[in-house]
């Protein structure tokens, strides 16, 4: 039984397919684990497909998907466990294929074309406390607005701004080896 008409399913596929790679890369940066990233990316796409009737045409589909991804990640992270997913996208649309991007390669040419983060920056991001890492990834790496990030995380915009600022300061400190000047006391 189809959840949607074929035209609606095709519309979802048309909007979602170009975002597979960015979703997966964001999930990989959040989880730092390839299998977990694949799981939450798949879960995100399943939830988005099931709720596609709630998406308002003309609004930012990318931000909507990243909101779902972020919430899936947070829920999974808080649960502390992952469960296998069994739903297939192929059942909805004839001739459709839903392939996840290949895992990052070690070949330098591939790394450049994949737009992966510099190793030193990735290590610094990985060492950020979770509350700062998530907002920095969504705002600076995935280029969501402060409002979109606030909506995705279900927190006030001011909290997003504060966490981005603090996260950037921590990153700057880690990458340059300097103390943040605003925090020094006399």
Biggest sheet record? none
Q: How much of the residues is beta strand, in percent?
A: under 5%
Q: Please write the string of helix (H) and strand (E) elements.
A: HHHHHHHHH
Q: Outline, from the CA principal axes?
A: globular
Determine the number of helices (DSSP H or I, runs of at least 4 residues). Answer: 9
- Amino-to-carboxy terminus distance: 69 Å
Helix content: 55-70%
Structural domain tally: 2
Question: So, the CATH homologous superfamily of the largest domain?
Answer: RNA polymerase sigma factor, region 2, helix turn helix motif
Give the overall average pLDDT. 78
CATH class of the largest domain: Mainly Alpha
Give the uncertain stretches in residue-range form: 81-88, 102-116
How many β-strand runs? 0
Radius of gyration using CA atoms only: 18 Å
- What is CATH's topology name of the largest domain? Rna Polymerase Sigma Factor, Chain: A
Global structural class:
mainly alpha
CATH architecture of the largest domain: Orthogonal Bundle
InterPro entries: RNA_pol_sigma-70-like, RNA_pol_sigma-70_dom, RNA_pol_sigma70_ECF_CS, RNA_pol_sigma70_r2, RNA_pol_sigma70_r4_t2, RNA_pol_sigma_r2, RNA_pol_sigma_r3/r4-like, WH-like_DNA-bd_sf
GO biological process, one term: response to stress
GO molecular function: DNA binding; sigma factor activity
Domain RNA polymerase sigma-70 region: 22-82
Structural overview:
This protein is an all-alpha fold and 186 residues long. It is built from nine helices and no strands. It starts with 5 loop residues before the first helix and ends in a 10-residue tail after the last helix. Residues 81-88 and 102-116 have low confidence and may be disordered. Residues 22-82 form the RNA polymerase sigma-70 region domain. InterPro entries: RNA_pol_sigma-70-like, RNA_pol_sigma-70_dom, RNA_pol_sigma70_ECF_CS, RNA_pol_sigma70_r2, RNA_pol_sigma70_r4_t2, RNA_pol_sigma_r2, RNA_pol_sigma_r3/r4-like, WH-like_DNA-bd_sf. One of its GO terms (biological process) is response to stress.
